[in-house]
């Protein structure tokens, strides 16, 4: 170590001597020698500060062009580096003297204590979840950790964690680099600014404003003259997402025109697809070079940090410096770390945008939508759901979804394969009463929202109004089975009712009577008064017939002026006669239509189960024949198919 300190002292002296006696060298030679001496001085400084422990992060970051470097900002603080190497589960395997001193750790304890003993518990849990990620370990992690030194107050320290691989590219250890800053450190507020942007995104701030704050921070805190950030999607034009510049600059007049020129350059796209920080513009760029900054500026160097967001989206952070001084390698390390933070920030922003878009989409869906817990209690509703019930969203939260299918879900879950990850959605039809009191029919789709273990934690419920469709279906069904003129059952419904009534009569051992009715001289009414009047007469006859029977009986219209009546549950023939007499009496009063009084007569033929037949079609034929016998008797009377019943 003494040798390194002696070399460092000699190098400082050589640098001062060179700067005092370099008048015989050309500008290019002077610049190259100065940069070489600065690089060597920086390397010796790192060796001394780390006490021969693992190299700092800056040395792990590849740089394409080692002949030039960024000028160190005037506000860059002095750093003291703490280094650890831990196993994958956090056991400390190596540590430098600074680290053991800060943490109050005895070097003899190495291999026996864990880094978790010196980090706040909640922060360690989060950090460990990232380090132990199964899919892919991070390339590096950048955090501000709460360190808990033995016997001393806790303190916030920026930390960078980098994986260490074996020959098979398996992560076998982690290198931890913690940076202790001087009292007037200006980097710490900047790092806090970047980390605070995530909370600002949650609060609704736009991503472009966050990126602009980062650019402005690089200008104000780290002293860069011009900073800008671009993103692009494959096949699309690059977008300028943020920029900042020291001093006065008319962006509207010059910046917009410059960006239009830059955004069309293929060199910009290629630079964005890079994988490491690189020098974009040398000290003296040619007039035909890529214009990385607006014309009229004489920036010394321009560096680019490529950003990768996903396979189709990438970008770049570009920083420009004015001074000719070389940059400390730590600055490049901070820029690379900042690039990773921006990637993480934009990934979070895209996720938030997606969540907000989904929330807005679900909130504005025309169909009522809600989310419940596993017991069916409302946890979220959209505007349409709240409007359906005429209540506010907040007042409905926590209440029970009345149509929640508890039994169906339990039954489906019990029948499902226990090893299955899900049991699918459940579709049912439910009735709801709208805020105006109207009865509505909804198709309800209940979809389970599963956790990582495949357990239903919530249910999404979508209600699609099918009232109009169901009404139309009911109307079509009604028209299929009911007479459109009188709204009585038609021939199809009559046949179905007759078969059901016969089955019940067989079970109960009762009589069933079938009346076949036909209006007398109805053709005369149509010819004399017109078909519209005839239709009105038929409707009135149907209404009168319906008043003569019980609700369990059936009155039907077969066609024209032919009607039928099914009487079921009859015990005596005399009961049949009483109903027939009641029908004749209800039709005695003439039908008054305007000034017209139209008299009505009707003939009734009667067949009885089981006396006349047990076959439904035969009963209809027998009753029809008996009706004609009634007409032969002069009409306005009934006639039993069993002749002896007519004489009693």
Instruction: Give me the side-by-side strand order of the main sheet.
Output: 2-1-5-4-3
**What is the fourth-level CATH superfamily of the largest domain?**
GAF domain
Which percent range fits the helix content? 25-40%
State the total count of DSSP E strands: 22
- By DSSP (H or I, 4+ residues per run), the number of helices equals 19
CATH domain topology of the largest domain: Beta-Lactamase
Weakly predicted, low-confidence segments = 1-8, 46-79, 182-186, 418-422
Please, what is the oligomeric state?
single chain
Outline = elongated
Summing up helix and strand content along with how strands pair, one would put the structural category as: alpha+beta
Q: How much is the average pLDDT?
A: 78
What is the CATH class of the largest domain? Alpha Beta
CATH architecture assignment of the largest domain? 2-Layer Sandwich
Gyration radius from CA atoms, angstroms: 46 Å
Textual characterization of the structure:
- The protein has 648 residues and is an alpha+beta fold.
- The protein folds into four domains: 1-50; 188-359, Beta-Lactamase (2-Layer Sandwich), CATH 3.30.450.40; 365-468, PAS domain (Beta-Lactamase, 2-Layer Sandwich); 482-646, Reverse transcriptase/Diguanylate cyclase domain (Alpha-Beta Plaits), CATH 3.30.70.270.
- The strands form five sheets. It has a five-stranded antiparallel β-sheet, sandwiched between helices. Strands 7-6-10-9-8 form a five-stranded antiparallel β-sheet, sandwiched between helices. The protein has a five-stranded antiparallel β-sheet with strand order 12-11-15-14-13, sandwiched between helices.
- Strand 11 and strand 12 (378-381) form a beta hairpin.
- Helix 6 packs parallel to helix 10 (329-364) and helix 16 (522-529) crosses helix 17.
- The model is unreliable at 1-8, 46-79, 182-186 and 418-422 (pLDDT under 50).
């Amino acid at each position: 170590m003494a040798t390194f300190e002696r070399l460092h002292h000699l190098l400082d002296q050589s640098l001062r001597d060179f700067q005092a006696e370099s008048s015989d060298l050309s500008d290019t030679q002077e610049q190259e020698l100065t940069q070489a001496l600065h690089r060597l001085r920086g390397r010796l400084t790192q060796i001394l500060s780390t006490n021969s422990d693992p190299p700092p992060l800056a040395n792990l970051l590849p740089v394409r062009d080692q002949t030039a470097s960024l000028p160190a900002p005037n506000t860059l603080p002095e750093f003291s580096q703490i280094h650890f190497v831990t196993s994958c589960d956090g056991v400390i395997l190596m540590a430098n003297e600074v680290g053991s001193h800060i943490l109050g750790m005895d070097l003899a304890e190495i291999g026996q204590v864990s880094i978790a003993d010196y980090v706040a518990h909640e922060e360690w849990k989060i950090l460990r979840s990232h380090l132990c990620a199964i899919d892919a370990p991070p390339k590096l992690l950048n955090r501000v950790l709460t360190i808990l030194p033995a016997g001393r107050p806790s303190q916030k320290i920026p930390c960078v964690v980098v994986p260490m691989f074996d020959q098979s590219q398996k992560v076998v250890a982690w290198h931890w680099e913690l940076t202790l800053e001087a009292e007037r450190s200006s980097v710490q507020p900047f790092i806090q600014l970047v980390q605070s942007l995530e909370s600002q995104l949650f609060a609704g701030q736009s991503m472009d404003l966050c990126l602009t704050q980062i650019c402005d921070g690089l200008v104000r805190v780290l002293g860069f003259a011009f900073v800008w950030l671009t993103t692009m999607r494959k096949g699309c034009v690059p977008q300028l997402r943020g920029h900042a510049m020291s001093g006065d600059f008319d962006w509207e007049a010059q910046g917009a025109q410059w960006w239009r020129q830059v955004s069309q350059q293929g060199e910009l796209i290629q630079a964005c697809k890079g994988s490491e920080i690189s020098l974009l513009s040398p000290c003296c760029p040619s007039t035909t070079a890529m214009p990385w900054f607006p014309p009229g500026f004489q920036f010394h160097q321009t560096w680019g940090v490529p950003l990768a967001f996903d396979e189709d989206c990438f970008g770049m952070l570009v920083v420009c410096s004015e001074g000719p001084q070389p940059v400390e390698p730590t600055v490049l390390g901070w820029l690379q770390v900042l690039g990773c933070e921006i990637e993480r920030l934009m990934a979070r922003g895209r996720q938030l945008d997606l969540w907000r878009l989904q929330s807005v989409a679900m909130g504005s869906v025309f169909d009522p939508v809600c989310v419940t817990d596993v017991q069916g209690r409302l946890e979220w509703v959209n505007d349409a759901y709240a409007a359906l019930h005429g209540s506010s969203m907040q007042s409905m939260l926590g209440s029970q979804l009345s149509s929640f299918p508890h039994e169906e879900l339990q039954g489906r879950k019990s029948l499902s394969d226990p090893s299955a990850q899900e049991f699918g959605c459940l579709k049912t039809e439910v009735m709801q009463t709208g805020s105006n009191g109207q009865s509505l029919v909804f198709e309800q789709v209940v979809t389970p929202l599963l956790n990582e273990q495949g357990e239903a934690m919530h249910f999404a419920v979508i209600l699609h109004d099918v009232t109009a469709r169901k009404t139309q279906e009911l109307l079509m069904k009604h028209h299929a089975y009911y007479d459109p003129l009188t709204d009585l059952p038609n021939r199809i419904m009559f046949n179905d009712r007759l078969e059901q009534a016969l089955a019940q009569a067989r079970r109960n051992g009762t009589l069933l009577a079938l009346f076949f009715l036909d209006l007398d001289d109805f053709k005369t009414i149509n010819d004399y008064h017109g078909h519209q009047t005839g239709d009105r007469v038929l409707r009135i006859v149907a209404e009168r017939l319906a008043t003569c029977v019980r609700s369990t009986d059936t009155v039907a219209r077969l066609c024209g002026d032919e009607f039928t009546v099914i009487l079921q549950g009859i015990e005596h023939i005399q009961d049949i006669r009483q109903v027939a007499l009641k029908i004749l009496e209800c039709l005695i009063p003439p039908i008054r239509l305007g000034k017209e009084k139209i008299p009505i007569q009707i003939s009734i033929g009667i067949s009885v189960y089981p006396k006349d037949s047990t076959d439904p079609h035969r009963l209809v034929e027998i009753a029809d024949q008996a009706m004609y016998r009634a007409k032969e008797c002069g009409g306005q009377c009934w006639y039993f198919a069993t002749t002896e019943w007519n004489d009693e």
